[in-house]
Amino acid sequence: MVFGKVRASFDELFAKIIGKTCPPADQLFARFDPSPEELKVIESSVSVVGRAYLKILATRIFLGVSSGHFSNVLVKKDGELVSLDHVSGKFEPGDDLEMLFRFVSNDSLVFEVLCEIAKLTEGDIRAAVAGIPKHEACGSTDGLADYFVGRLKLFQKLCSAPQPKGAAEAVAA
């Protein structure tokens, strides 16, 4: 407990020296003092090959937003990961998904996690887009639901007709 407070104070001082402070975030981080048991849960959650992180990557792929990284991913003491970074989104024609699925073995955890997205429904997508506030800061949502329904249908197609084993090697050759 004492080490955590000393470290938080040191981190705060270092951030001030280099001009990288965010007082609300710094205060939250200073109070983040997980127990040894909580640390074990957190460590397994932040594994790059763990289900929790792969779900964030799969979601980013579906949305067509920034590539996978640990920046702007919060971790709670119970190991839940919260993704905050959904910037740099762009409309993709679908070839990005087709290429990705050619390189993912259908008997892998990655394939399983990607295909969890295919369990969404058109209604889920339309409800999510309808929930975006109608405000100039959010921009226009015209055509957005149809775009994501199209991506969902492609996910569903790619998950229902998985690539045979060895497809990645054949594409790379």
Task: Describe what this molecule looks like in 3D.
- The chain is mostly helical.
- Among the domains are: 1-33; 95-172, no CATH class.
- 54% of the residues lie in helices and 3% in strands.
- The chain is built from nine helices and two strands, in the order ααααββααααα.
- The protein has a two-stranded antiparallel ribbon.
- Strand 1 (73-75) and strand 2 (81-83) form a beta hairpin.
- Helix 7 packs antiparallel against helix 8.
- The longest helix has 17 residues, at 2-18.
- The chain is globular and about 50 Å long.
- The termini are far apart.
- Residues 168-173 have low confidence and may be disordered.
Summarize the topology.
Elements: H1 2-18, H2 23-30, H3 36-45, H4 51-63, E1 73-75, E2 81-83, H5 95-102, H6 109-114, H7 122-130, H8 144-160, H9 167-172
Antiparallel strand pairs: 1-2
